[in-house]
Amino acid sequence: MRYFFHIGYHGSAYSGWQKHAGILSVQEVLETRLSRLLKTTVNIIGCGRTDAGVHASQFFFHTDIEGEWNFDLFFRLNKILPDSIAIFDIIPMQGAVHARFDAIQRTYDYFIHTYKDPFLSRFSSFYLEPNLDVDKMKAAVMLLPLYNDYRGFCKTPDRNDHTICNVSAAGLYTDSNGDKLRFQITSNRFLSKMVRIIIGRLLDIGQGKMSLHEFENHLINKTTPKIIIPAYPQGLYLSKVTYPYLDLAPRSTFSAMLQTAAEIDWQAL
């Protein structure tokens, strides 16, 4: 039987989602704990990959489990997982559905605070830039859905079959005090470090280091700059994954501090 697991995780302690030898990954932790509980080797396939230090307030993986279990897997798995990983739902699925290839839309949120706050440091990225030109940053954000080739915002574009991403929405928001920023982007797919690279360019625009024309040229000319500096990872969340047959609201507790409140307090620029 194939199962979808709906999860969330805080990525600060992990070298990303994907399992690699010699590093701690979210995938490895989940496979190890599931294998221990089910007393068989369990391999899982995630809905995507997140970089080291990046979070997911919504994430799905699938696995095939033969036979039934005679205990509360949801309770037991949550009990033995670290606090940084939570299971929200275990969903039996019909047919050969796929957590990665069947996803039709993904949304990322990126949070920035421009003042030093020890309580935000693991949830949001700190940039001591209180005088960002947010109007120019917003103008750049509005360009994103107008283009679909993001080669200029990918660190390793030649590793992909193509660099086409159909961005359906992008927005920039600020809180009532103007010292926190939230960037949100939705697309059918994302390239390696794409969102963090976009944020880095938006910050350059906000600081006057890059013009709107230069930013748009990266989208028009599809050239990869020689120097690419992605934004910090801790402000980035994979926040929504949608399937043709499954559309669940995120349930993560830690993201609620930023995202649920965001729906009330954030103001569109």
Describe the structure.
With 269 residues, this protein is of the alpha+beta class. It has 2 domains: 92 residues, Alpha-Beta Plaits (2-Layer Sandwich), CATH 3.30.70.580; 164 residues, Alpha-Beta Plaits (2-Layer Sandwich), CATH 3.30.70.660. It contains 6 helices and 10 strands, in the order βαββαβββαββααβαβ. Strands 1, 2, 3, 4, 5, 6, 7, 8, 9 and 10 form a 10-stranded mixed β-sheet that branches. 34% of the residues are buried.
Quick description:
This protein has two domains: about 1-95, 2-Layer Sandwich (Alpha-Beta Plaits), CATH 3.30.70.580; about 105-269, Alpha-Beta Plaits, CATH 3.30.70. By secondary structure, the protein is of the alpha+beta class.
Helix-strand blueprint:
Layout (H helix, E strand, L loop, with lengths): L1 E8 L16 H13 L6 E2 L8 E10 L8 H8 L4 E9 L11 E9 L11 E2 L7 H10 L23 E8 L5 E8 L6 H13 L5 H10 L14 E7 L10 H13 L1 E2 L1
Parallel strand pairs: 3-9, 5-6
Antiparallel strand pairs: 1-3, 1-4, 2-3, 5-8, 5-9, 7-8, 7-10
Could you list some keywords that capture this structure?
alpha+beta, Alpha-Beta Plaits, 24% strand, 269 residues, ten-stranded mixed sheet, 2 domains, 6 helices
Uncertain residue ranges: none
Helix-strand pattern, N to C? EHEEHEEEHEEHHEHE
Strand content: 15-25%
**Structural domains: how many:** 2
Number of beta-strand segments: 10
Output the CATH class name of the largest domain: Alpha Beta
Fraction in helix: 10-25%
The name of the CATH topology of the largest domain is: Alpha-Beta Plaits
Q: How many angstroms does the end-to-end distance come to?
A: 47 Å
* Shape, per Cα inertia axes: globular
> Average pLDDT across residues?
92
The helix-and-strand class reads alpha+beta
Q: What would you report as the Rg, rounded to the nearest angstrom?
A: 19 Å
CATH architecture of the largest domain: 2-Layer Sandwich
Main beta sheet strand tally, sense and closure: 10 strands, mixed
Count every helix, treating DSSP H or I runs of 4 or more residues as helices. Answer: 6
